Amino acid sequence: MTKVRTRFAPSPTGYMHVGNLRTALYTYLIAKHAGGDFILRIEDTDQGRFVEGALDIIYNTLKTTGLKHDEGPDVGGPVGPYIQSQRTDIYLKYAKKLIDMGKAYYCFCTKERLDTLRASSEASGDYKYDKHCLHLSEGEIKDKLASGIPYVIRQNNPETGVTTFHDEIYGDICVDNSELDDMILIKSDGYPTYNFANVIDDHLMGITHVVRGSEYLSSAPKYNRLYEAFGWQIPTYIHCPPIMKDPHHKLSKRNGDASFQDLIEKGYLKEAVLNYIALLGWNPGGEKEIFNLQELVEKFDYRNINKSPAIFDTVKLKWMNGQYIKNMPLEDFNFLALPYYKKVISKKLDFLKISKLLKTRVEVLSEIPDFLDFFQKLPDYSADMYIHKRMKTNLQNSLITLEKFLPRLESLDPWTFENIEKCCMDLVSDMQVKNGVVLWPVRTALSGKKSTPGGAFEIADIIGKEESIKRIKTGIEKLKKANQ
Ligand code: GLU
């Protein structure tokens, strides 16, 4: 059996769209599931789109996500070069072969002529080149080439009959040849079009499975005509459904969360993003949704990719990210959370203790600062926060609690979680009240917030004795004023 070889073929746009990353992932999974090779090829023949630093983004994303390529521009391999702009001679050679076979032809049409042609077909909506240059004589072609008139090379498609191709996801697709445009293979700048280069490279690089977005589906019949003209074996096509922001809009760069970098900057974990993206249009069957890369490799079967568009559901991604955070070792979470702590806390606190409180609550790292601001500084809060029906607290009994609690806290030594807890619980039993009557006012005074990660003991333990006493005193003052 031939070894499975797949390729990820991004254009260096400076941006790793979620859809591109999904293509990379599926491409990788198909190869690795079958014990095959995963190849990286850079498709940079559209020189107008070239962006500085774009290659680094591609390399970095693959590296960070663990999608390690076996061959590529940076690691080499037997069928290089792996950057299309370094392969222009190859494309020209094959284009000329097609010309010799009558399957392609030189076209010298000017932009003006093509514009007129396009304008006149505007009403019908389906522009097609009119094969004008197909009918030039050999002599005319020779003369034009000799006098340096710019040209492109076009595919020569038949005008009758039908071209059929098979896609693993979308099934058999038939197209009337009358609909096939004589697409450009080589542009006037000497570079090939994507449409031509992808076929030549996929063949020469021994690609067995071509994975890409469904936007290329409609061009596939023209690619098949090229494979057939050369007598090459057509690869297995796997076109993936589009990724939508909602049922009517594609997930686009403009949304600000369409790229891998955007998501990482927003505080998502790379493992969670990869896991989530794997499920965008692929269904593993069963209940399990959390898969690491190795599990995906084992499980992935491209036959289970869906045809219908996938909706990028941020709520689901958040949930999944939260699961990854919950399941990671405390030290790892602490390491990732530290830069976010530093945004709002300049005090020297035991961050590991804070991490312990946050780990089960945070879904996305960027939420962290909002959880924590009160550790740095007691917010200005209203005395009404002491009133809690279920806790049976009001302005009066809260004041009593805090006043009784203060001296006990002041004499507490050593300042440990256990002692703080005991101090609170002793007060509960001495006052013969329910826990809430003590714990609600104490936590409110310590945090100035209705909800906090961790309760009164944890907060007091983290902010320390001096700060806790100061905050309880502030609470007493606030309540005294409110009770007047
Ligand atoms: N260079 C194309 C893109 O970035 C890749 C299409 C393909 O994988 O064949 O969209």
TrEMBL record:
The protein's annotated catalytic reaction(s) are:
tRNA(Glu) + L-glutamate + ATP = L-glutamyl-tRNA(Glu) + AMP + diphosphate
Taken from the UniProt entry, a GO cellular component term is: cytosol
Q: What does this protein do?
A: Catalyzes the attachment of glutamate to tRNA(Glu) in a two-step reaction: glutamate is first activated by ATP to form Glu-AMP and then transferred to the acceptor end of tRNA(Glu).
Its quaternary structure?
Answer: Monomer.
Q: Which UniProt keywords apply?
A: Aminoacyl-tRNA synthetase, ATP-binding, Cytoplasm, Ligase, Metal-binding, Nucleotide-binding, Protein biosynthesis, Zinc
What's this protein's name? Answer: Glutamate--tRNA ligase
Tell me the protein family, please. Answer: Belongs to the class-I aminoacyl-tRNA synthetase family. Glutamate--tRNA ligase type 1 subfamily.
Q: What is the lineage of its organism?
A: Bacteria, Bacillati, Bacillota, Clostridia, Eubacteriales
Please tell me the species this chain comes from: Clostridium luticellarii
